[in-house]
UniProtKB/TrEMBL annotation:
Its cofactor is Mg(2+); Zn(2+). Belongs to the helicase family. RecQ subfamily. One of its GO terms (biological process) is DNA replication. NCBIfam families: recQ (TIGR01389), recQ_fam (TIGR00614). This is DNA helicase RecQ. Residues 29-201 form the Helicase ATP-binding domain. GO terms for cellular component: bacterial nucleoid; cytoplasm; replisome. GO terms for molecular function: 3'-5' DNA helicase activity; ATP binding; DNA binding; four-way junction helicase activity; hydrolase activity; metal ion binding. It comes from Parazoarcus communis. Its EC number is 5.6.2.4.
Length: 526
């Protein structure tokens, strides 16, 4: 398709002012422009917008862009109009008159791109207008941005997204492109199924940030560990330190200042002027360390942030990836450093249990936390774990703490095999809590009722305490020997990767450091 890609390049240069496509952009643009469906996974900042904006301008008629965020629509449309593109949006922020003007332009076919909120798209009135465009051959394509909003198990679920599945029925010849920056394997399949994009070509960009070194240490004396890290490695560089609470942000910033670090606090509870001033100083000056809650960072584009540190566990792997991704945007060596402790996990689990949400919401939160703890407890390459979460397989990186100095491990092969066997014997229908009861020989009501006190795995794991079993199960999930079925109460099921271990062809190692603190606390409790 040389003619097509030439005109894609022409649009890229003359409309958007860029000289070359990045990564997968060119292939995606070519595929969609020639009428193909696409499912695009690209990290934030990767350049998703051009993937539908360029084909929108190459194809006859108006492209319909479904977007869940009013602010985002606004920014995109302003930028497009600035570049001379005929773009508009329809959402609840428009008054009736402006909305009518946009609808008229849509009807006339004079729009290149129209951004709409999903609930607007699904109104009979709007669908009628789309029918008209279709019947006059002026419907260019559908772009579904933030496609993970269709996932019921994600944090951004938008029920209206489910209705987008009618598009291929009603407009079978119009190409669709779904885009997202956050989709683990399960979410990806959910997008494909629910949006009926099973046949769509998939474009998966790498989420790897090779210049970021990942380091995760166990908390001992976190402040001392933090100041040691900064003094040793980044005494005069810009960095971000994330804390969970506003109070901890302020205390940590004050303490760092006493230690001679150029630290400033940032959280949503500070007056607007103070936040703006701190943010400006961070952007302008060379060596500000911003101590912040997650309120800080969205849309901050400072290329030379040398480190991102976490003094508390982030909420999820996705959160960790987004937050650490603010380091080293210039491509030069940078570091993601985190201090964590078993106490943090207990605290976060309690916060989830005590939160307002539904049982299902809590179950999701607990699972997200488990997956994250799987990463911090890992004994092998951190990057491999992180990328595996995004469905990417890779070799050990040589640029994370576990690669650089492999942690001490204990052999949990036998325990892991018992765990797998218990999953199997109970019919792959139960969550870790129940399985641990069975392994430890606890005759709970549920264990007795399901007849699990009579099976061969009952009580075979009484030598390990509950916490240790939790670690074993968490690592079985993290290493994908076991999958979590969200649709069935987080039931654990065996995957193909469990086979070598069950056959005795693989070993299963766990970190010793965690073990030590645990057996110590057990002894003192005894
Ligand atoms: P995403 O939606 O994936 O987070 P955007 O589409 O907002 O990413 O693009 C991120 C930034 O990269 C924007 O500033 C955009 O202008 C820029 N960008 C995207 N593609 C290119 C390209 N081919 N050449 C130069 N800059 C690009
Ligand atoms: Zn590594």
């Amino acid at each position: 398709m040389p003619a097509k890609s030439a005109s894609a390049l022409h649009i890229l240069e003359h409309v958007f002012g860029y000289t070359a496509f990045r990564g997968e952009q060119e292939a995606i643009v070519g595929h969609v422009a020639s009428g193909g469906d696409a499912l695009v996974l690209m990290p934030t900042g990767g350049g998703k917008s051009l993937c539908y904006q360029v084909p929108a301008l190459m194809r006859e008629g108006t492209a319909i862009v479904v977007s869940p965020l009013i602010a985002l629509m606004h920014d995109q449309v302003s930028a497009l109009v600035e570049a001379g593109v005929n773009a508009a949006f329809l959402n609840s922020s428009l008054d009736a008159e402006s909305a009518r003007a946009v609808e008229r332009a849509l009807y006339d076919g004079s729009l290149d791109l129209l951004y709409v909120a999903p609930e607007r798209l699904m109104t009979p009135r709007f669908l009628d207008q789309l029918d008209h465009l279709r019947d006059t051959n002026r419907l260019a394509l559908f772009a579904i941005d933030e496609a993970h909003c269709v996932s019921q198990w994600g944090h951004d679920f938008r029920p209206e997204y489910l209705q987008l599945s009618i598009l291929p029925e009603r407009y079978p010849s119009i190409p669709r492109i779904a885009l997202t920056a956050t989709a683990d394997r399960q979410t990806r399949e959910e997008i494909a199924t629910r949006l009926r994009l099973g046949e769509a070509r998939r474009f998966i960009s790498s989420f790897d940030r090779p210049n970021i070194r990942y380091t995760i240490v166990e908390k001992d004396d976190p402040r001392r560990q933090l100041i040691g890290f900064i003094r040793e490695e980044y005494p005069s560089d810009a960095g971000i330190i994330y804390c969970l609470s506003r109070r901890k942000v302020e205390e940590t910033a004050a303490w760092l200042q006493e230690q001679g670090v150029n630290a400033l606090p940032y959280h949503a509870g500070l007056p607007q002027e103070v936040r703006a001033e701190h943010q400006n100083r961070f952007l302008r000056e060379d060596s500000i360390v911003m101590v912040a809650t997650i309120a800080f960072g969205m849309g901050i584009d400072k290329p030379d942030v040398r480190f991102v540190a976490h003094l508390d566990l982030p909420r999820s792997i996705e959160g960790y990836y987004q937050e650490t991704g603010r380091a080293g945007r210039d491509g030069l060596p940078a570091q993601a450093w985190m201090a964590w402790g078993a106490q943090d996990v207990v605290q976060q689990r309690r916060m989830i249990d005590e939160s307002e949400g539904s049982e299902e919401f809590k179950r999701l939160g607990r699972n997200r936390l488990e997956v994250l703890v799987g990463l911090v407890e890992a004994t092998t390459c951190r990057r491999q774990h992180l990328l595996a979460y995004f469905g990417e397989s890779s070799a050990p990186c040589g640029n994370c703490d576990n690669c650089i100095s492999p942690p001490q491990t204990w052999d949990a092969t036998d325990a892991a095999r018992k765990a797998l066997s218990c999953v199997y014997r109970t019919g792959q229908r139960y969550g870790a809590g129940h399985l641990i009861d069975v392994l430890r020989g606890e005759s709970t009501e549920k264990v007795v009722e399901r007849g699990h006190a009579d099976i061969s795995t009952f009580g075979i794991g009484s030598d390990l305490d509950e916490k240790r079993w939790r670690t074993v199960f968490r690592q079985l999930v993290a290493r994908e020997l076991v999958a979590v079925d969200h649709e069935r109460y987080n039931a654990l099921t065996l995957t193909d990767l469990a086979r070598p271990l069950l056959r005795g062809e693989a070993e299963f190692l766990l970190r010793v450091s965690t073990e030590k603190t645990r057996s110590r606390s057990r002894r003192s409790a005894a």
